[in-house]
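Deliverable D4.2, example record:
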Amino acid sequence: MTLEAKDDLWIDRFFDYLTVEKGLSGNTLDSYGRDVRRFLQFLEKSKTHGLERVTKLDFLSFLVALRREGLSERSVARFQATLRNLYRFLVSEKLLNENPLEAVEFPKLSKKLPHVLSEEDVERLLDQPDPSTLLGLRDGAMLEFLYATGLRISEMMSLRLDQVNLEVGCVKALGKGGRERIVPFGEAAQASLRAYLSTARDQILKGRISPYLFVSPRGGKMTRQAFWKTLKKYGLIAGIRGKLTPHTLRHCFASHLLDRGADLRSVQTLLGHVDISTTQIYTHVSRERLKRLHQKHHPRA
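Output generated by the structure prediction step:
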């Protein structure tokens, strides 16, 4: 495979991840695309062909070139963020062994608050799959399970049957960097999983054998893309407006736990965050919701 073809493949996988797992908007994806193309053009001009051959010096030279063109610090910071996310993804997917940008210091940018549905919206979403059909049983189990555990969609789609203990109500998740964590789930998810496993899963497989928990009619595991389309369908039926991605349910899981009194350290453990500062964003979400409720219902607001 040529270096150009490999770069194209890696970038396609990166944008698939941004679309399905991170749920970025079309405008944001376009911005990422322009940034990556500009970086590749710079590499071509500097005779550094291939993302895998990039060094820290190449990256710093690119930033210098951007500043010489008169770009603002904020615009340069956006390029930094795009390429940092690209290389972190390539390492996490084991496409690269080392991240050449790891030793580069990045400016701290303000974090955008994640979009979180109300508990009522989540309930309405979970009510949409039709339990009288095989795929409805599977879809209902997936939605309940994702909201009950807060797993990343890639973690859930990779789950094998032996990672789930239905009797105890817990799952052994394999997160970023191969880190394992145990995540409990409640009675609603247990009931949905039992119904799916006892009735629908074998019939969906039609005699095929699969180690994966959630399967497709083709006999393989469910893909992130297929789940994303399924989620969007139920969101439309439920009348949920705005952005809805698999990661939205992870945001809801964390935010709703904090709303109901869970401590931040416990939520960090359940989410599999290495750094608690990543989890702290949800405390801001909870405060913003309280402000809106106060403004809406207080007579003197």
